[in-house]
């Protein structure tokens, strides 16, 4: 009878061990994961978050000085292009500007104006007048006598003896007409479609068109 009792106790202990083994393995696995340096910081941060830091208030006041002068640097006196450009302002006024590295230490800077005859086969060049410039000038407005005419200028130096030495030459320009065009009856642009519709040739001037219309109407 005593042997049977011991056997039953042994069987009961074995059964308890078999039941408790999975729980014991899970307990060991959790302790391994929570060792220092392996996930403990994340675990502690998840369950015990730090207190929120006090946010620094944003200062919306404008601290810049409104009257502060901005330094963009100085423009160079010359870019070294050495060019002279002539432009038209209106029928009797032109505008010239230039960029040159020439030093006006001696002599007088002069803008010499020429005219060109645009109607001739060979454009005749005629000297008109000189304009004495200031030594620090880099542009100039000046009048011209004729409208619908071509001009160009030269920038140079007049020596003390009166000799003119040209340094730069501009592009030629043509001033616009200051009066109405004398062509009051230009030929019309031909258009065959309208000519077929009205039986009129639209390549003729208005006078011939009027005569053509009278002829077709009768």
How does CATH name the architecture of the domain at 83-174?
Answer: Sandwich
Helix content: 25-40%
- Mean pLDDT equals 75
Here the CATH topology of the domain at 83-174 equals: Immunoglobulin-like
The topology string of helices and strands comes to HHEEEEEEEEHH
Cα end-to-end separation: 154 Å
Give start-end ranges of low-pLDDT stretches: none
Rg over CA atoms, rounded to whole Å, is 50 Å
Per DSSP, the total helix count is 4
Q: Give the CATH class of the domain at 83-174.
A: Mainly Beta
Class by helix and strand content? alpha+beta
Number of strands: 8
Taking the sheet with the most strands, its summary is: 5 strands, antiparallel
| CATH superfamily label of the domain at 83-174 | Immunoglobulins
Shape: rod-shaped
Range of strand content: 15-25%
Describe the model.
- The protein has 218 residues and is an alpha+beta fold.
- Among the domains are: 92 residues, Immunoglobulins (Immunoglobulin-like); 33 residues, no CATH class.
- Helix content is 27%, strand content 25%.
- The protein is built from four helices and eight strands, in the order H-H-E-E-E-E-E-E-E-E-H-H.
- The strands form two sheets. Strands 3, 4, 6, 7 and 8 form a five-stranded antiparallel sheet that branches.
- Strand 1 and strand 2 form a beta hairpin.
- The longest helix is centred in the N-terminal third of the chain and has 32 residues.
- The protein starts with a helix and ends with a helix.
- The model has no long low-confidence stretch (mean pLDDT 75).
């Amino acid at each position: 009878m005593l042997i049977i009792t011991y056997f039953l106790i042994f069987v009961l202990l074995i059964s308890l061990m078999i039941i408790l083994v999975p729980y014991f393995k899970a307990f060991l696995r959790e302790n391994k994961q929570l060792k220092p340096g392996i996930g403990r910081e994340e675990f502690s941060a998840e369950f015990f978050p730090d207190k929120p830091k006090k946010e620094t208030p944003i200062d919306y006041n404008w601290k810049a000085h409104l009257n502060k002068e901005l330094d963009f640097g100085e423009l160079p006196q010359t870019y070294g292009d050495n060019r002279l450009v002539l432009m038209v302002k209106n029928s009797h006024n032109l505008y010239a500007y230039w960029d040159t590295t020439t030093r006006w230490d001696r002599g007088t800077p002069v803008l010499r104006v020429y005219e060109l005859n645009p109607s001739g086969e060979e454009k005749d060049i005629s000297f008109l007048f000189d304009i004495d410039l200031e030594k620090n000038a880099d542009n100039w407005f000046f009048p011209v006598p004729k409208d619908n005419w071509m001009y160009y200028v030269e920038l140079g130096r007049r020596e003390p003896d009166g000799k003119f030495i040209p340094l730069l030459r501009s592009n030629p320009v043509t001033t616009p007409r200051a009066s109405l065009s004398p062509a009051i009856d230009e030929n019309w642009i031909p258009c065959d479609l309208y000519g077929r519709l009205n039986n009129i040739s639209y390549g003729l001037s208005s006078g011939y068109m009027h005569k053509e219309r009278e002829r077709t109407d009768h």
